[in-house]
Amino acid sequence: MSAERKVVPIQAEPELVPLFEAHKTVYPRTVAGFFQNWRWALVWLTQLAFYGTAWLQWGERQALLFDLQARRFYIFGLVLYPQDFIYLAGLLVISALALFLFTAVAGRLWCGFSCPQTVYTEIFLWIERRIEGDRGARMKLDAAPFSVEKLVKKWFKHVCWGVFALWTGFTFVGYFTPIRELAMSFITTRMGPWEVFWVLFYGLATYGNAGFLREQVCKYMCPYARFQSAMFDRDTLIVSYDAARGEPRGSRPRNADAAARGLGACTDCTLCVQVCPTGIDIRKGLQYECIGCGACADVCDGVMDKMGYARGLVKFTTQQGLAKGWSRAQIWRRVLRPRVLVYAGVLLAISLGLGLSLALRTPFKVDVVRDRGAMARIVAGGAIENVYRLQIMNATEAHQRFAIMASGLPGLVVTSEPEVEVDATASRWVAVRLQVPQQAAAAGGSHPIHFELRMLDGDAHVREKSVFLIPR
Q1: Could you give all domains of the chain from N- to C-terminal order, each with its CATH number?
Q2: What is the pLDDT of residues 405-447, one digit of tens each?
Q3: What's the CA gap between 117 and 215, in Å, rounded?
Q4: Residue 247 contacts residue 264 (beta carbons within 8 Å)
Q5: Residues near 260 by Cβ (< 8 Å), separated by ≥ 6?
Q6: What is the DSSP string of 370-401?
Q7: Is 312 in contact with 242 (CB distance < 8 Å)?
Q8: Residue 110 phi/psi, 5° resolution?
Q9: How far apart are CA 58 and CA 20, in angstroms?
């Protein structure tokens, strides 16, 4: 009798499931068209402003300079101090509202046309194409084994990237250290350690973000990509694929009758995917990775022209307009909806308020600080004296004289120098003594008073409150 055999089940190999998708290099193809022309126009406009404004002069100084060491910020004819932080807050509010407005109207226009990440990526891609070639040539070069040609092209590309990135970092630092002085320090190899650090830091950030990270910044690192959906609705203009017209997709000879073949207008050429800077397929619908650059619309219009079909298979439209077949006029009427008008109205009101505040801004500021070493004392003649320290900040670019006055108590007089001088765009601490005759003094305690400073060469004046202490 044979013994029973025990069957042991074969253990299957464990399956490894990756938590993150492996990064695939995106090789955007060169594209030409209406939206691409606009992108390059904004590349030129933004970079001429960035690299050129740093060299502009306003009188005897740099036109736009944020002098952190002196705590003064020069913006053409304006001189601002840290106490003017409210203007920065207003500017940030305006920027946020503008972003909300543009996103509600036409999606990620900022990302596709003006964002520094997009602009510098476009510049770095242009350098890469000039050295390595277009999409196919770059893919072939990356896949090829090591060779002298590959080494030279890669090395030369990175040298060009590095020089451009360092120039960008140098210009950035030039807005905080006068750029002409910075240039002379660079030529004479006498740049300070902090200037060197920030030039290298900003240059490295530009080199890494635009040269290597590229679409990963837009897809994974930028928070705007994540919360943009909260500002979208079905009447927001976005880059869209007309599936009703394009499907079913399929290849066919040029000028072929698509209807006879049972095909839509889409030839399934995948050029819309090849030109996309983030590597997405717009035919899959709205995706958070889409930056709204319109490259797919440009290349698709070119294919439609070659095939003899009408343009607009991929275009800027709204989800509602696409679903209901609305005309351009109908779409634009819905774009100007209450939400957009509220954003625009609030943005206009805050912008006008900020502009008016800057126009009516007093050209000097005063801070009053009590001298804690001498709170109140009785001086010769029986008068009661308080000592204060006034910081006078001259926000004009001319030497100014100021008259100091005080009010609030009977007989209150300024016994120190009644006039002071402050250099252009400078601040000065001044000790001020106030006295009240003892016979005219009020009850003991703290009494409110006001300092008034008047510019002698103009009508500007500032009134600041403080307190006068009388011993009990």
Answers
A1: 233-326 (no CATH), 364-470 (2.60.40.10)
A2: 999 988 899 999 999 999 988 889 999 999 998 777 677 788 8
A3: 9
A4: yes
A5: none
A6: E-TT-S-EE-TTS-EEEEEEEEEEE-SSS-EE
A7: yes
A8: -60, -45
A9: 53
